[in-house]
Amino acid sequence: MNWRARLLALDGMMPGMDDTGGLAWTTLADAPEDAELVFLGFDDGRACFAAVPPQGDAGPRLANPAVWQAMAALSPDDLAIYGGARSLVDWHARHRYCPNCGGNTKLAKGGWQRNCESCGAPHFPRTDPVTIMLVEHDGKLLLGRGLGWPEGRYSTLAGFVEPGESIEEAVAREVLEETGVRVSNVTYVASQPWPFPSQLMLGCHGYGDNEDITLDTTELADAGWYSREDVGAALEGNGPFIAPPPQAIANHLLRWWMER
């Protein structure tokens, strides 16, 4: 029933917030005229939707301070809803034309598919696998600072899995390319969806063969080795670097390493 349905309030790609600091919801009557609606699921018996905006967001997500502020303010449940909805409507907004023939595509299956109206090709929302890794040597961790990051912010290294690559191979290649450190004995630790815009973060741990760093300055601003004391102090907010935010898997990986 439409009266039971609700619409996620979005300002472009940013979430609307209610008086309690949670996600704001409206009704389907508030959807823009002729907007495509994506079905997000049910909450307490109510169907939940989000409207596809006129344009997607092609800019770097983490370069937008407002995104970080929203992520920090939302509860884990609301952040999961917002992240999934944002990723989905962004994909729809940027895939209105078929990559096979260039024809118009149309939303299908509640927003979990688009079909080409010309050649009939189906298209599905994508998820890109990304390795994010703790690299350890002699009781220290290899951490890096990305280009354009705030001064003092360091995190675990990360990189996209390339076609034909295993997770373990991607870890070893990315670390070697970015720092010149060879990695072995790679094991999986945990994963986290990161829908900004469409990543699945694959947390891993491996061992570096030495501490000699040859930095790829097109990928990283800096990299270095940090002791257990350094990491622990950073997680408490008074270390030699600024730790990743609590909602990021990098923070959880550092805490996992500290607790081993």
UniProtKB/TrEMBL annotation:
GO BP field? NAD+ catabolic process; NADP+ catabolic process
Q: Which UniProt keywords are listed? A: Hydrolase, Magnesium, Metal-binding, NAD
State its cofactor: Mg(2+); Zn(2+)
Which top-level enzyme class is recorded in the Swiss-Prot or TrEMBL entry? hydrolase
- State the EC number(s): 3.6.1.22
GO annotation, cellular component aspect: cytosol
Coiled coil segments of this chain: none
Q: Where does the Nudix hydrolase domain start and stop, copy by copy?
A: 125-249
Checking Pfam families in the record gives: NUDIX (PF00293), NUDIX-like (PF09296), Zn_ribbon_NUD (PF09297)
Cited CDD domains = NUDIX_NADH_pyrophosphatase_Nudt13
**Molecular function, one GO term:** NADH pyrophosphatase activity
What does the sequence similarity comment in the record state about its family? Answer: Belongs to the Nudix hydrolase family. NudC subfamily.
The molecule here is called NAD(+) diphosphatase
Q: Name the gene.
A: nudC
